[in-house]
Design a protein that fits this description.
This protein is an alpha/beta fold. It is about 20% helix and about 35% strand. The chain contains five helices and 13 strands. The strands form two sheets. Strands 4-3-2-1-5-6-7-13-9 form a nine-stranded mixed β-sheet, sandwiched between helices. The longest helix has 10 residues. The relative contact order is 0.15.
């Protein structure tokens, strides 16, 4: 089971929704993300938020769909997105995609990226996608990665502390047993030279980012 959560980030940053049509997924909308989904002809299975980012007319239109909703006060200890993610993790999905969580306010964007740790703790793959990027977190070990024409640039960033023993094979800029501290830009904007490459590391948590210009 795959759950896709659309939050209320800038609409122009959203990925191509045609990538998800025809596939069996559970859709959830967060705040203005509910409005965006309904505009695209997608009826979410549930809605989350305090809905302070929609006007009265938009809210009345959304209410006409009678969606299963989880509404919260605007003053709370978790963001609407984190509450939606807690719900999604409770459904025991194979994967969760977070859309509409980048762009706009930087504090929200950084907090949303840190939410990827919830998936790692729960053993569920969570990926952030927008029009230009795909982000996920990776645990130590040996991993295979495939070349994607639409996302040719691959970057690795230490996420919670230094990463040790990073080895890249099949990349334009290979590495062997490299120590990568926080704040390093060593592994920004690499590319695969073969259709399939590998990367491995001994300790730490890596954020893997696939991008295009």
């Amino acid at each position: 089971m795959k759950i896709i959560i659309l939050a209320g980030g800038p609409e122009e940053r959203q990925p191509d929704f045609s990538l998800f049509t025809g596939k069996k997924v559970i859709w959830a909308g967060v705040d203005r993300g509910v409005f965006y989904l309904l505009k695209k002809g997608i009826t979410p299975d549930c809605a989350f938020g305090d809905f302070d980012s929609v006007n009265d007319e938009e809210r009345q239109w959304m209410a006409s769909f009678q969606l299963p909703s989880f509404e919260y006060d605007s003053e709370k200890d978790k963001t609407d997105l984190e509450l939606a993610l807690d719900w999604a993790l409770g459904q025991n999905p194979e994967q969760i995609l977070l859309l509409g969580v980048t762009g706009g306010r930087l504090d929200h964007e950084l907090a949303n990226i840190q939410l990827l740790l919830h998936g790692m703790e729960a053993g569920v793959s969570i990926e952030i996608r927008d029009k230009q990027n795909r982000l996920t977190l990776v645990k130590p070990g040996l991993h295979t990665i495939q070349q994607e024409i639409d996302f040719p640039y691959i970057s690795f960033l230490p996420f919670t502390g230094p990463v040790t023993g990073l080895t890249l094979k099949g990349f334009k800029y290979p590495l062997q047993d490299q120590y990568v501290p926080m704040g390093s830009t060593l592994c920004i904007s690499n590319e695969l030279v073969n259709k399939i490459g590998t990367y491995s590391f001994s300790s730490g948590i890596l954020m893997l980012i696939k991008s295009h210009d």
